[in-house]
Amino acid sequence: MKSFRRMAYPYLIWSAVFIVLPMLLIIVYAFTKEGNSVINIQFTLDNFAKFFSDKVFFYVLRRSIYIAIVTTVVCILLGYPLAYIIACMKPKSQVVMVFIVTIPTWINMLVRTYAWRGILDKNGMLNSILGLFGIGPIQFLETAFAVVLGMVYNFIPFMILQIYNSLSKMDDSYLEAAADLGADKVQTFMKVVLPLSIPGVISGITLVFLPAVSSFFIPKLLGGGKYVLIGNVIESQFLTSGDWGFGSAISLIMAIIIIISMHITKKLDKDNSAEGGNG
């Protein structure tokens, strides 16, 4: 047992250095301001007051949450049918389809997002196709549509795979029992398949919403700097303005929002599991 504990020490050290220590530094910067010397550091709540007193920053936060919610909903609407279709295929076909879904994730996300600039540009592929029908050119870049499209493209594989895992692990005996009781395909889906796949949906929501709400390079590339989200504000505070205290305060606010979101999704998952067990 002691040997196993010793094997965990490198991971604990890694976590302390690269996870715990940066979080502690963010907390320190968020709640302090520099005095006359490095030693004379003063406690303050000015960074948080600045954020909540300025309507612009609060608006950007609301817009970020809204974009993340829209991205998550679109990923569910597009990802669930595809995951269901894959789960209904033969085992060999499932492997091929999962492989196709995961291929884009092998490429760096920054490269994939930058490629969409060429597709959505006024002289890009999409406007060229629309031009064949006498439509356009349309301004796709620097819009909410482009930002949501980029996020959906980058994050939808996580939603598909999570839902697919839930559907593929489903016991076929439930479907047979529903058929024996006279349920048609729609009733079977609504009363058996959908409830049993909810854990996968909730896991997918977590994996999509959390990175979407804090994303900064997708709105920067596809929004052209004109569609600013909270991740862009944090980046500018650290890299451009040099106001680490304010940037840390915003980061801490986002961390709290993410923790609350994870708690809600975890509670929903537990409630769904309890209802399934009682059923």
Map the helices and strands.
Layout: H1 2-31, E1 32-34, E2 41-43, H2 46-53, H3 55-87, H4 91-102, H5 109-120, H6 125-131, H7 144-168, H8 172-180, H9 185-214, H10 217-222, H11 230-241, H12 244-278
Antiparallel strand pairs: 1-2
General description of the model:
- With 279 residues, the protein is mainly alpha-helical.
- The chain folds into 2 domains: 1-44, no CATH class; 63-278, MetI-like (MetI-like fold, Orthogonal Bundle), CATH 1.10.3720.
- The chain contains 12 helices and 2 strands, in the order αββααααααααααα.
- It has helices at residues 2-31, 46-53, 55-87, 91-102, 109-120, 125-131, 144-168, 172-180, 185-214, 217-222, 230-241, 244-278, and strands spanning 32-34, 41-43.
- It has a two-stranded antiparallel sheet with strand order 1-2.
- Strand 1 and strand 2 form a beta hairpin.
- Helix 7 packs across helix 9, helix 8 packs antiparallel against helix 9 (185-214) and helix 11 packs antiparallel against helix 12 (244-278).
- The model has no long low-confidence stretch (mean pLDDT 82).
